[in-house]
Design a protein that fits this description.
Helix content: 40-55%
Structural class: mainly alpha
Shape: flat
Oligomer: single chain
Number of domains: 3
Radius of gyration: 29 Å
């Protein structure tokens, strides 16, 4: 009887926990992050976020939706039928349709999600109260930008220099003197190949008085096999590549060099990073490759025995390794 009583108490406590306000808040946060936020960012942010505010309406925070634009408040928490946002995405006749293009109209299930969201109070998680990530320059659409006008026009050799110098001027920073040719070629060669320049390479650069002299050096270094060997090494380190299996049974892996060469060739051939990353994740599921990062991660000889679909599930550590590895090269 005592055990049953204790079990009943525990069950009641667990039910209370499941229905607690914090649990409900978490569910509402998850609903916003999974159903609402992706649509706002992917469909609405281009015209109503960042520097663009069509109709004086911004949608990058709950406060701005409540404030609304030229037509008034965009949302009325708890009252989706009175919310202009709902009328707009439903494309009702008395309001401007959102999005304007009919072929980009929201699906019925997406509209239902917004109705449910507003009906439940239009909860906007405090930790994502503003779209800091979406406003990052990397997510802005590509557009033509004129280089800023700077004072030291003689210092500016390209449009990129103009942007750099403008930032320096704003911060009150003066550029250092131009590096001599020996310093330039040493910096470039060590950076791109990890090796010092040869005496012959230094002499050739110092004798080249053309405006493209340094550009010629950089192009030569990027075409050098040493470039892929240097920068590919960073990727190999991150994905834990080794010529042996590691752990306690540190036996040699005879064909491991195939993956190493594949990575080096990818850098030397300037393979697009998205394509390279797909190959790291999917491996020979999508193409016959010399090897993949998934084959270079932790494992043992028994990994090769089961070729069933169930055995092809990727270990979490390997997915995390690929997912957390950023581009490591100036060209990737």
């Amino acid at each position: 009887m005592k055990r049953l009583t204790c079990a009943g108490v525990l069950l009641a406590a667990s039910l209370l926990t499941m229905s607690s306000p914090s649990a409900c808040a978490d569910e509402r946060d998850d609903f916003f992050e999974g159903k609402i936020r992706p649509v706002l960012v992917g469909t609405c942010f281009r015209c109503h976020g960042g520097t663009k505010t069509a109709g004086e309406l911004r949608i990058d925070s709950r406060e701005r939706l409540l404030k609304g634009g030229e037509s008034g408040a965009a949302i009325v928490p708890g009252k989706p039928e009175e919310s202009l946002l709902i009328k707009a995405i439903q494309r009702q006749a008395d309001v401007s349709a959102m999005p304007p293009d009919k072929d980009k109209a929201l699906r019925a299930d997406q509209i239902a999600d917004f109705i449910a969201w507003i009906k439940s109070g239009a909860v906007w998680p405090a930790k994502t109260a503003k779209f800091e990530i979406a406003q990052h320059w990397a997510f802005e659409p590509v557009r033509d930008v004129s280089p800023p006008v700077v004072q030291d026009k003689a210092w500016v050799k390209s449009s990129v220099d103009a942007f750099i110098r403008a930032k320096q001027q704003a911060a009150g920073v003066r550029p250092t003197a131009m590096a001599d040719k020996l310093t330039l070629i040493r910096r470039a060669t060590f950076d791109l190949t990890g090796l010092p320049p040869t005496p012959e390479e230094i002499q050739a650069f110092e004798k080249d008085i053309s405006p493209q002299a340094f550009e010629t050096v950089v192009d030569r270094l990027l075409k050098s096999p040493a470039y892929g060997e240097r920068w590919g090494r960073h990727w190999l380190d991150v994905v834990r590549y080794a010529d042996t299996a590691g752990e306690t049974a540190d036996y040699p892996v005879p064909l491991a060099w195939r993956y190493r060469n594949y990575v080096i060739d990818a850098f030397n051939n300037d393979k697009p990073y998205d394509e390279f990353l797909r190959e790291q994740i999917a491996g020979d599921v999508i193409a016959l490759l010399s090897g993949t990062a998934l084959a270079a991660g932790p494992g043992d000889a028994n990994d090769q025995r089961d070729q069933s679909p169930a055995a092809s599930a990727v270990p979490l550590t390997k997915v995390e390794t690929g997912g957390l590895t950023p581009p490591r090269s100036p060209r990737h």
